[in-house]
Amino acid sequence: MDLLRHLRLFVTVAEELHFSRAADRLGMAQPPLSQAVRRLERELGAELFDRSHRRVRLTAAGSLLWDEARELLAREDRLRMLARRAADGGLGTLRAGVPPDTAAAVLTALLAACAGRTPGLCVDLREATTGEQVRLLASGGLDVGLLHRPADTTGLLLGPEVLVDLGVVLPRTSPLAGRPEVALGELTGHDLVLFPRDHAPDRYDQVLDVCRAAGFVPGRVRHAANSEFLLALVTAGHGVAFDQGPVARKEPRVAWRALAGRPLAQRLSGAWPAGRTAHPAARTFAEIAAEVLADHRAGPRHDAGGDGPGTAPPRPWSVVYG
Questions:
Q1: Are residues 34 and 169 in the same domain?
Q2: Which of 5, 17, 28, 275 has a CA between 20 and 30 Å from the CA of residue 292?
Q3: Whole-angstrom distance, CA of residue 47 vs CA of residue 57
Q4: According to the per-residue pLDDT averaged within each range, which of 26-30, 85-89, 313-317 is highest?
Q5: Would you state the pLDDT for residue 303?
Q6: Beta strands 156-165; 318-320: pairing state
Q7: What is the value of pTM for the model shown?
Q8: Positive or negative CA dihedral for 14, 16, 20, 23?
Q9: How many folded domains does the chain comprise?
């Protein structure tokens, strides 16, 4: 016997105390309704309605069952609602990877946007490089990641891509710091400070390929996993670096300059495993991340120290929906 169905029928009769009106509400004939109630009574071993008078009345057992049944059915409705929300990605925990160089303001805005869009979902942000995220997405250690591209995205679905042009971070004493913009080929003779290759191998190789094609072959590639070390190396004259601009603002002894022709850009997009096992909120997170990144476009000043040549307007981020 479908107990929940029979309880729903019972509750309707108990509310109407009239089998004919209850049948009309339920959109069914009265005889099958009466038979269903009788079957429920046999199942429970107790009469639920007193039919000895012209009016149908609840027995003591019926009154008790009415209270319990309404509570049980309300909980069933809530359970179904929660299951639907979970299936749509509105509940549970989403394990999301973000690059280590993600700004605090972006992370704060990302969490706030996720809370506003999916208030029942707990977003567990985990700092991981693109290489680490790709491995964790493949092994099930992450539900969604925010990847620097290009990257090996085999077996992954991708959300909207966000792009921002990169400029060059120079020692303020460099003659090139007096230029409004710098061509990549003019950096010849400098070392390059770059993130470690295992952080994002495909992006690392692409940066060097673009530099070589433009005539900039670094004398040496030095590696910096965090922005503070990168700035220290540039300040000490151990190379130049590529950045959106905000990193250069932290250090008055360096200057940020746009690159002529905009040959280098940072590309980011959300990624999650393809297939039925994908978290239902992964796509939503990727779309929210793209919106937040676009809203927090870099917009670097032309000179980080504020005493250089005129300020160039920032190039806006663009979001590309595939």
A1: no
A2: 275
A3: 11
A4: 26-30
A5: 45
A6: antiparallel
A7: 0.66
A8: negative
A9: 3
